[in-house]
């Protein structure tokens, strides 16, 4: 059994290095106890690297990412460092394209003690899967613009949709096995209006038929937006097109009371990137006050994915332990950063999570 894992580390810009260091420290501790091993490979890239070298994403860093078992990324890009044509520096988007990371995974979890605009104390824990390579983003930057008309294309393919739906049902099954969900996948679309979405739904139904033990249903995207606010606890796994997923994942972040506790994963056939939903937060960089929890929760998703993929049960169990430890620190409300209403620093929070593990 494979027990040593090479992880490419993109610590990037702004608060990136500050939240990455304590996360790697937690992972090292878990690995020692769990009988598996990490080899962390630094992959320089991002806006500061561009400023220093004129190259935002060196070929060597891409090679490190390709060769790794998984990729951990904290944050890349700075608002005032751009390419000469004015576009933002975001190597994470290059990674998504180069490695065909088609499934954007965004857990929406509202823990006890977590600030949320929802007036409910029901626990919310569902996962939004956003297709990330085609859909309405397919013509990104290549739309047709004429004097009095502009067009973009909505593209849905079998090559991407079939593995996307398989991933969604497998995730629902593993959540069910772990006691985290009832085992249900909701296809979010607009199949009543667009033929491309009827096609999307057909492929979803075909995959659903292969999973008799997992429930499957459909919802229109507009109704989904309403239900995410009115009764979010009824969702388990939700899978949708790129643009719909883009919008719904911000709605999800809103329900979670901000970005400080929002992890994500971008998953393909052979590669996966795990990173917090927030950006590089240059306004608080270098002060030691950034919340490391979204980064830590992203690392927990990496443990889930690597553990399941390689049959390392100790790793899968550690993913759950790490999440439970964060839950406990949030619920106690004793050691929290400013974004969650506390006064603690990054290192204090990381230490509290470490203590909550044991
Ligand atoms: P991007 O353009 O990269 O998506 P953004 O400009 O939308 O990023 P962030 O960099 O995520 O935004 O920052 C938005 C706000 O949230 C800032 O005020 C920032 O300080 C705060 N913030 C983001 N991440 C954290 C964190 N981990 N801890 C505390 N505050 C954070
Ligand atoms: Mg920004």
TrEMBL record:
InterPro entries per the UniProt record, alphabetical: ICDH/IPMDH, IsoCit/isopropylmalate_DH_CS, IsoPropMal-DH-like_dom
SUPFAM superfamilies in the cross-refs: Isocitrate/Isopropylmalate dehydrogenase-like
Domain named Isopropylmalate dehydrogenase-like: residues: 6-353
Pfam families from the UniProt entry: Iso_dh
Cofactor(s) the protein requires to work: Mn(2+); Mg(2+)
Keyword Manganese appears in the UniProt entry: yes
Keywords carried by this UniProt record: Manganese, Metal-binding, NAD, Oxidoreductase
Keyword tRNA-binding: no
Protein name: Isocitrate/isopropylmalate dehydrogenase family protein
């Amino acid at each position: 059994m494979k027990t040593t894992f090479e992880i490419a580390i993109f610590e990037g810009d702004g608060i990136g290095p500050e939240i990455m260091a304590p996360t790697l420290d937690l992972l090292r501790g878990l690995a020692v106890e769990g009988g598996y091993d990490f080899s962390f490979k630094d992959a320089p890239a991002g806006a500061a690297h561009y400023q220093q070298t004129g190259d935002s994403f060196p070929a060597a860093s891409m090679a490190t990412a390709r060769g790794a078992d998984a990729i951990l990324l904290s944050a890349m890009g700075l608002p005032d460092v751009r390419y000469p044509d004015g576009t933002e520096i975001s190597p994470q988007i290059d990674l998504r394209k180069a490695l065909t990371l088609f499934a954007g995974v965004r857990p929406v979890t509202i823990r006890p003690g977590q600030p949320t605009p929802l007036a409910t104390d029901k626990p919310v824990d569902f996962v939004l899967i956003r297709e990330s390579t085609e859909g309405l983003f397919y013509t990104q930057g290549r739309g047709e613009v004429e004097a009095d008309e502009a067009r973009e294309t909505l593209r849905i393919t079998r090559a991407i949709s079939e593995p996307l739906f398989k991933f969604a049902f497998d995730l629902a099954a593993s959540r069910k096995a772990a006691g985290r969900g009832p085992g249900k996948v909701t296809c979010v679309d607009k199949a009543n209006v667009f033929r491309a979405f009827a096609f999307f739904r057909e492929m979803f139904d075909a995959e659903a038929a292969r999973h008799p033990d997992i429930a499957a249903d459909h919802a229109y995207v507009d109704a989904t937006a309403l239900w995410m606010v009115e009764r979010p606890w009824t969702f388990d796994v939700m899978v949708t097109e790129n643009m719909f997923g883009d919008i719904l994942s911000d709605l999800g972040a809103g329900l979670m009371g901000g970005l400080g506790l929002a992890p994500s994963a971008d998953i393909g056939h052979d590669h996966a990137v795990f990173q917090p939903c927030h950006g590089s937060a240059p306004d608080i960089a270098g002060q030691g006050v950034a919340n490391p929890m979204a980064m830590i929760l992203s690392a927990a998703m990496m443990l889930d994915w690597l553990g399941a993929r390689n049959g390392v049960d100790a790793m899968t169990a550690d993913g759950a332990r790490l999440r439970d430890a964060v839950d406990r620190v949030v619920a106690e409300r004793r050691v929290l950063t400013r974004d969650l209403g506390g006064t603690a620093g990054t290192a204090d929070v990381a230490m509290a999570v470490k203590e909550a593990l044991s």
